[in-house]
């Protein structure tokens, strides 16, 4: 690719966007291989990450947050409970509701998986990239951050 600035929507921009999208997909797969998430479906992983990020929540609020039907969320929660990854407790404000939260075991699995992915990526960068290339990667990361800024 040349260093000539491209117009939005140009063939160069489109090719770069495709290359980046494919590369990010490959990187996500490689990271997922390192993390040992026990082959959970993406919807269940999303629930775990939502609970980790936002804290305990009801099934209905999780369904809204994830754009799922409450029945589908209930199925996901049931599977996660059976796997020992989440637990429910009565809502102190509304006894008809159950507040779902991560189990300590799940928190540890998330932490361990994250550490394994970080370790793999750090080792791979150190092994495959020279110091100059690592500087280039750092600059590229800065550009990628700009792409996703709100």
From TrEMBL:
Pfam families reported in the protein's UniProt record: MarR_2
Transmembrane segments: none
Chain ranges of the HTH marR-type domain: 13-149
Gene Ontology molecular functions: DNA binding; DNA-binding transcription factor activity
Domain of life: Bacteria
Keyword annotations: DNA-binding
Gene3D superfamilies cross-referenced by the UniProt entry: 1.10.287.100, Winged helix-like DNA-binding domain superfamily/Winged helix DNA-binding domain
InterPro entries registered for this protein in UniProt: HTH-type_Bedaq_tolerance, HTH_MarR-typ, WH-like_DNA-bd_sf, WH_DNA-bd_sf
Designated name of the protein: DNA-binding transcriptional regulator, MarR family
Organism: Bradyrhizobium brasilense
